[in-house]
Amino acid sequence: MMDTIKDYVFPKRFSILAYVCVIIHFHCGVILAAIATALRFGEEEKFSCAVDTKFATHKIYVEKTCFSIYDDAYNSPVRFYAFIVLNFGSVVVVSVIYSLAVGNRIDETEKYSSGSDKSETGAKKGNVEPGRKLYVFYFYFIHLVARLMLGILFTILQHVLYPSGFDSKFSCVYPDIKQSDPNITAAQNASVTLSSHVTCTNSAAQDKQFWGTFVSVCNVIFAIITLLEVAYLIWYQFPCFNTRSNVPWSCDSQFITEYFLQKEYIPSEDDKFTGIDNCTPNSIDIYKQNILKASLNTLDINYGANISLDDMFIDVVIQTEQAPHKFLKGMTRHEIYDVYMEVPKHSICLKEIKDLFYPNEDTKGNSPRTILALGRPGIGKTVLTTKIMHDWANGVDEFYHDKITFLFKFRCFNLSEFQNVTLKKFLRFGAELNEDKFESIFEEILHNSKKIIVIFDGLDELCSNLKEFKNYVDQSKTYSNDPDIPMSAMFLFIKIVFGYLLEEATILVTSRPTASDVYSKLKFDRKVEIIGFTLDKIEKYVEQFCANHEKNDLKPKILSHIKSSSEIKNLCYIPVNSFIVCVTLLNCLHDPDNDNPLPTTLTELYQAALVYFHKNHDRNESKGCYQKVIKELQWLAFDGMKNDQLIFYGELVNEQMKESGLLHCLPVPFFQIQAQVCFIHLTVQEFLAAKHIVETKEPEDINEFISSHVEHGKWHLVLQFLAGLLGRRMKMSDQYRSCVLAFTEHFSCEISDENIVCNLDPSQVLVMKCLRETKDEGIAKETAATSALKGVTCIRNNVHSHSSSEYAAMVFVCKHLNFLASLTLKGIPDFDCLLQVTKLLQERCIEKLSLEMPIVYRVELDLEHVLSALTDSECCINHEHSKLTQFTLNDFHITDAGVSSLIEFLLQNAHRICLQKLHLRGTKITSCGIAKFCDVLGNEICNQLIDLHLGWSDIGDGGVRTLCNALRREEHKLQRLNISSSLTTGSIFALVEVLGDEHCAITDLNLVSDAIGEEGVRMLCDVLKQEQCKLAVLDISNCSLTYKCMPYLTEALGDEKCRLTDLSLGSNDIGDESVCTLFAALRLEQCSLTKLDLGYCSLTEKCMTALCEALSHEHCGLINLNLGENDIGGEGVRMLCCALRKEQCKLTELDLSDCSLTDECLPSFCKVLRDERCRLTSLDLGSNAFTDKYLSLLSDTLKLEHCCLQYLGIWSCNFTDEGERLLEDVENFEHCKARRLRIEV
């Protein structure tokens, strides 16, 4: 019987769990049915009644009569053995029916997955429906549900049919034998009035009761197991129940292969494109085969002759929306090629390329529709797109199943074939299929655009100018969103990205950062940055490169040279530079006749690379024509850069140029007749364009070229190469010196706090990189002495983060600045960049040093290198008068051991140090480290300290108490103290004691995110009312304060001895009612408050009446108010605007960002700004629901002469491009220029 069942129930037609359950069901049914039958047949023999045995006939009568009564009571209407057969047999029957129904389809899929009998299977394709539907899945699901319901049903039936189970003792009432009527049954005789009572025992009942319980438990267990599998299938297959990133099964072939056969699903020839049921499989196969052939060799990152695309190294970091990198309206918008996008601290590293398309924290759990991939030249953007196409063609991940992928290069958009195309023709060009084969594909994807992945490579190659892009956007709006209307490829791109066409398609766009003006105007759900090689991958690259060129003996020498030169190591982080470095060094080291030093700059590398390509890849038989060919290529490169042409064909390219090894012949599309070529890499074209300029233009023309192109991002790498080539020319003729110095004319400085400041924005860094490319220290010295940098006292980069090579360029120039005394560098991206900074510290005596490392990159060696550089300073300028007065090391990995090193450094260099400011934010210092620091607090190196920042560290209450005790014990001049996120109520008493000390000079105290509680606020307010307390600035934001704390603050502010002028209460749950008491204090003559921060304090319009009354009061001195992130609404704004128009209101700065404001609020603000009594100079209305509706009114208001507004924040609103342009034009208006109005959109 078991063999018969196995003939119908095959394991490969079920999940492992479901199959095991079926087999156990069958075996349990057979065994339990046999046991129940045996118990049934022997039950009567085991049934006995307590009857006097002297009358045997009477005993037999009684027992038979009572057994009949017992049987009717406990075994009716279904015998127990019959119940077991029905119970277990029904589940097996359902499983057999399911198995027979899906058998053929599953067998067919198994043959495909095993790779056998493919020809036979293909022959049967006409008779067997391909596994593209989910027929098996739904049949299997229904069969599971049926098994589940049967389990539940029989569990309930068992309790209905056998409510009392099987009692072993039975009290029997039977009719007396004399009154019994032979014409009726024994059971009926029991109802006769004359009856007898007897107690009976059924010894088989205990066994039946046990097995009955066993049956019930089995039903429950099997039902639970089946329910879990049903729930899993629902969770996995149906997205509405699933927050995971899995892709559901798209067809029976996939479901059977992965779920039943437990194999990786690779689409077969009948199931390659499961989502497009009506398309011809051969069309997709041909497309995929073409992709796989094309991706066997790539020229963007060339590892050698025997490397596959799967071995490419691409690291991607998700650029979350919390990134601090913000393009403000007032910034200079120069772009550079080698810019590092500032990586947020909580960025997510994508381990595999497929993770680009899956939801994560940065997309708030939603699948990203539009993705932007940024990367510097040669970083591997094109390889990324090729790899995605390759992965899709191979079906390496379930995300690619049921999808079709198209790849477009922006450089092709200038071709005539792309100027007037419909959406269908455009996509057909991407797939390179003829119209017949593409027809069925297009019909399917047009109605279900979820099936499409569209990749656009190289946005910067076509459009890096904002004005040009806006023209494209404006012109695209003149076309309807009808896919059948012909338009240019660029217009189709815009409509696809904005979702006007293919609204559910997945879009990936790659670009260099130079096109930031353009891509910042597009909406992307995810932004990623390709960060290139890490040091270990550079080593692996070199190893693999040497192996592929069979030069393993040169690997140590190449690696040694790369590591010995920070310049070359910096270059190698970009993969294409790694290739250039390797081929150049390989050529130099392999050539025994080469006596030249190994190259160290980008220009030297590319110059050597040209020699390498000429010797190894130039196929021209006549080597004498090389100079002619190279000049033709240089002209072609320059002309292409000038005309935005990166693809060339026709009469522009002759056969000798094609054979030079510097051009790459592109596959000829079916719609193109002429052959097409491009340079093997864009950086090669840029280098040749620079050579053309140097070799064909006079110095005066070169000067003019530099001046006219330095503002254009696409020419920046050309200019860097140009500087390097000019540096070589200078050694032969001094006439080119003026050309190099032409770069220095673009340095600029500003006056800030009596300092001459050079901000390291992209334009300044570009010039420094160009100067460094010359390798001429004399040029750097002359620049420091004669350019705008000559009087610079301060270098800082408050906005941009830079690469290691850019820091090296900064050091190359700034080490010669005679008056440099202050250095502020925020967001130093990695340890290598820090090493470049330490080189400058060794060259200059810095008085004010501020360095900040991202937490994600910091290491324990950070502090040691900085201290060592400061100790070993070899400044060649007489700076004996210079002493280190300000020292900031934020987010450095400083432990308690690091504190010891810091103290040792301070003591050893006491003659060069007189600290007034020490910031050690975000370190690993504990209370032990604070104790060490306090030992030198009274030393001469620290007795002038007025500003101390130890916030966001691990000092805890113990450290705070130790510090406070030291401050009370030692003479100090400390005025500003920041211990945010460090203390609780356990140490607030020690702090209050210090503030109440008559010798304490602290006027500014920051306690952000400290858990001080209500009791801590009470103690702080008590000390504020003391004469000795000098506190003027207090920040207790995000301290878990509630309405209970407000009476203490109100009382303190109303005290005449309280000196508080600046109070921050942001991010506390204060509420309307309690804040009204605070507003009442503002009207008191004794209140000195001028700045108040109430951002994110759960306020609404209900408190606006009290606030407006305070602002309108003559005693209120408030000039700066922050109400951001509160639900103020339109009515609250209306009341506030009334107060702003009153003479008594002194408010000059107001923040109402993210306050639930709408268009109807703008007329109220305009009315205020038009009023001559309004004193507002700064107004932040960002992140509110404004549209273009009243922008004209706002624009006209801002242009008024008596409007005194200098800053307007109106960012993250719902403006159109026209609206944003309207606001941008306002800044250029005469009166707006005069007051330096800055608008942040």
Automatic annotation (TrEMBL):
GO terms for cellular component: cytosol. It is found in: Cytoplasm. Pfam families: LRR_1, LRR_6, NACHT. The keyword RNA-binding does not apply. Keywords: ATP-binding, Cytoplasm, Nucleotide-binding, Repeat. InterPro entries: Connexin_N_sf, Leu-rich_rpt, LRR_dom_sf, NACHT_NTPase, NLRP_innate_immun_reg, P-loop_NTPase. Its main location: cytoplasm. One of its GO terms (molecular function) is ATP binding. It comes from the Eukaryota. The keyword Translocase does not apply. PANTHER family: NACHT, LRR AND PYD DOMAINS-CONTAINING PROTEIN 12, NACHT, LRR AND PYD DOMAINS-CONTAINING PROTEIN 3. Belongs to the NLRP family. This is NACHT, LRR and PYD domains-containing 14-like. It comes from Paramuricea clavata.
